[in-house]
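Reopening: structure tokens for the nicotinamide-adenine-dinucleotide complex, inputs below.
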Amino acid sequence: MTSIAFIGVGHMGGGMALNLARAGHEVRAFDLAHAALERVVAGGCRRAGSAAEAVRGADAVVTMLPAGRHVAEVYRSTVFDEALQAAVLIDCSTIDIATAKSVAAEAERRGFAMVDAPVSGGTAAADAGTLTFMVGGTADGFARARLILDKMGRAVIHAGEAGAGQAAKLCNNMALAIGMIGTCEAFNLAQRLGLDPQTFFDISSKASGQNWSMTSYCPIPGPVPAAPSNRDYEGGFATTLMLKDLKLALEAAQGSDASVPLGAASEALYQMFAGLGGAGKDFSAIMKMIDGSWTAPVR
Ligand code: NAD
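Re-run output (same inputs, fresh job):
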């Protein structure tokens, strides 16, 4: 049995930590939020009173935190000082590439094996243990992290050196945002041209316009029963999280001199939608801004 410190057991980390516990590991969980910690303790994780207590003596450390500053703070103030030298360090948060690289470089200087391993898949995949992990780090770090990541996902892919996991995540989600907006525009135009939405779906999902946003998260209700559009765009992947990833992608594009005009346009459109009250809705709800039917929720 491997003992694993899990720091950050919120919407995503909670399900992930529970899957590690179900796989027979001793999971020492810590979170600043009481309710998040209670949920995983009830499900079989051990309660740690602090990040330091979770990390001390653990064979592995997994973090699932909101942003780069939380990750830098947790590793620099606690993990590097308290973890066993033999422990493998795995950050699954989605953060900026610069912070991921700098924390990994510090880990290496201090003799730790560390990987960045952000995920694709929302809370349902975190709960079900079907996430996709994109991993940045050395071959040795990847091999060691994989033994743990395999218990939380169905695909664990080595993307390259430190920071490459974050790079893959940001590029993937930029493509996702562009694809979703393109799909919304196509459905809107189809309707304006008199096409029945289901008929257009039947055609395009079997033609070259087919993409994940159409066939898994179809932005109009009906054709894909499990899509958030069928439950008033609740659940799923919130616009605010998509916006976070788009901002990180634009920052990375600027830093690498890559031209991303559609990525920038997507960010502007999602920013506009969030400003109109759509921040908490699934990102496919931008359909309603594009077709002109969006009315902001009454607060
Ligand atoms: P969340 O806010 O639900 O969870 C983050 C948790 O970290 C919170 O419970 C918070 O209390 C805790 N935390 C913050 N600072 C801490 C600290 N110093 N010590 C201990 N705990 C601390 O967020 P989430 O939705 O679980 O997302 C986590 C990460 O996963 C983010 O980087 C997000 O971008 C990424 N992600 C989220 C989704 C999604 O669908 N929610 C999908 C893919 C990736």
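The longest strand covers residues 153-160. The chain has a mean pLDDT of 97. Marking as resolved unless the reporter disagrees.
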